[in-house]
């Protein structure tokens, strides 16, 4: 008797949350002139702020009992536990991760990915997307390539 094989549908589930924070783009290994050349007004010594929008996407099979990939309340709780500590903070001064990591939105998206990975079942996190303005967004999917520069 052969089993009939029904492939399980793969569904993508997303949740958006926001936080507000200040920061400054500055590489301490470079001179003030080089920082100004590379980062422009984003290296202003007293910093500036953003209303960050974060969109998390999970990818997975439906649970047998609930038909959900993950309960949205649970996903929201995990996401808020990662981004609430960033809210109304200075990323560079208040968040230890950014003491030695430049707080570009690229690095903010990687940070959120790593923190979410600690909370979610293995293999379910698909994408972290962070917007710091209406015109820009930064997407991290856990991919790496070549040498890491820090
Ligand atoms: Zn900025």
UniProtKB/TrEMBL annotation:
Keywords: Lyase, Metal-binding, Tetrahydrobiopterin biosynthesis, Zinc
Phylogenetic lineage: Eukaryota, Metazoa, Cnidaria, Anthozoa, Hexacorallia
Organism whose genome encodes this protein: Porites lobata
Cofactor: Zn(2+)
InterPro entries linked to this entry: 6-PTP_synth/QueD, 6-PTP_synth/QueD_sf, PTPS_His_AS
Name of the protein in its database record: 6-pyruvoyl tetrahydrobiopterin synthase
Pathway: Cofactor biosynthesis; tetrahydrobiopterin biosynthesis; tetrahydrobiopterin from 7,8-dihydroneopterin triphosphate: step 1/3
Superkingdom classification of source: Eukaryota
Protein family according to the UniProt entry: Belongs to the PTPS family.
Enzyme class: lyase
EC number: 4.2.3.12
Annotated Pfam families: PTPS
PROSITE patterns: PTPS_2 (PS00988)
